[in-house]
Structure formats: C-alpha cells, structure tokens
User: Fold these one by one.
Assistant:
Number 1:
Amino acid sequence: MAKYLFKANIFAKLSEIVEADSEKEVWDKIRNRKSFEINQKALQVYPASIEIRKIKEKKEKSNMELKETVELMNSEDYKERFIAEYHQVKIRYEKLKNFCNKIEVEEMLGKEATKHDCPLELLREQQKYMGLYLSVLEKRALIENVVL
C-alpha cells in the first residue's frame, strides 16, 4: 500500500500521512475521518488549498549514503543537483554532529576521547555553519518547490 501526504490549509494548517492505494482512496479516507476536521463544503470552497502527493518511505532518504548522490549530482536538471547537494551536506553534518557528541560524552564520562586532531570547539563551529547552510537550502527548496 502506497503512502500519500495530505496537506490542507483550511482554517488551520493540517498535514497527515495517509496509507492508500490511490488518490481517490485518500479522498475517501479524508472525507470519512473527523480528525481532519474538514467537511465536504470546506473542500469545495478551498480546492486550491489541498495537496495530495505520493511519498517515499522516510527511512530511504535518512539512510542515504554519499555514493548514492553521485548520479543526482551529475544530472542536467539543477533541481536534482540541488537535492544531491542537500543530502551530501546533511550526511556530512550528521556524521560530524555524531562525532562531536561522541567526544563530549567520552569526556563527560572520563573515558579516553576518540582521537581527533582538531579542537572540539572548531568542529562544533563547523557543525553550526553546516546547520545554517542546511537551513538556507531547506528555505530555498520551499521557495523553488524542490522536494528534498
């Protein structure tokens, strides 16, 4: 069964993942569920504020490795290169964050810290700027309608 993301901006921002085999089945589930707090009249009044799109499993993207971004990075389409760049930075950011956390925890517990040539403060500063860069990429993706 495929998963669809239902988004609506009717009186309040609503977003929910719905499991269904088709968009029609998503609409049927939405109309029959009170948790969405949307009635048929609201759907007819604000049809432009409804978005249903098929989504991939989240775990696929979170487990992405650098080597999996190579094909996207070599694409002619700038949006695919943009997606690759985002995932490359995100992968590196997460690895750096985990490394810094590991060093801090080892120091807190009085264990011998994992070998690192660079001062932890400098690594944390790099992590900060990588996080800011990711934030800029995410905002740009929203503006340019790029699904990361």
Note: The helical segments are 23-32, 40-45, 58-62, 70-73, 78-108, 120-143.
Number 2:
Amino acid sequence: MPEEVVFRAEPKLWTAHPFSVTLFGLLSATAAPFVLGGALVNTGWAAVLAAGLCGPFPLFWMWLQARSRELVVTRSRVRKRSGIVSNRTTELAHRNIRNVQIDQGPIHRLMGCGTLRLSSSGQSGIELTMRDLENPEGIRDLIYRQHG
C-alpha cells in the first residue's frame, strides 16, 4: 500500500531567482527579432548564435533543473528526488530527523523562499538539501508535525 503524501513541492524558479529570470527573459525577447527577422544575413552567424543563446539557453537550463527536483513529505518520511537523465532519491524517516536548517538570503526572505536542509541522527552532516522552496518555514513545521 503506497504511503499517503502530505505535501509535494518543486523549486520555484521565479520566486527564488526573479532577477535572473527577468534578465534572461529580456535577453530572449531582445534576441528573438534578430534571430527570427533575418539578422543572420546582416550580422553573421556568430552574432545571431550568441544572441540566440544568451537568453533562452540559460533560462531553459534553470527551468529544467527546477523541474527535475521534487520534495515529497509523507506520513512517515521526507523524500527528495532529483535528476534530469537519471534519478537520485534521498529519504529520511521522520523519527530520524534531528536537525532542520533553513537558509534565506535577503532576496529569498523578501520573496518568501529558501533552502531547506535536513540531517538525521545517523549521519554527521546534512543529508538532504532542497533549494528554492516557497515557504520553507511552513515545510519545516509540517515535517515537525509529522514527526509527532
């Protein structure tokens, strides 16, 4: 019988990185007319290639990395799944979680997101790190409520 999922979250790209998303979005919008408008004839391959990759490629890479990570809280454990081509899963049972850390810089505090770090009694360091989560304090409180 599958475990009951209490909470599921993916990193929030816009909330965690508003300046980067805006910058790369503007670069994409600025480069699009050159690429689509035939600027290749006037400016050469190198300029069009540079303009086409400056915005869309980093934005796509950030989106792909965010979509390839997931945090799941069930009644008995916390699970992080990550990976673009292959998957890596880290699980911690609620009864073993001994330390929950939240890291937030000034922009993250303003935007209401941050990094959640979990460690257990069986290891000396941080075992599970999930970046760019909305409302990390709420997730911490949910984990503590499941811990009982």
Note: Residues 4 and 74 are 6 Å apart (CA to CA).
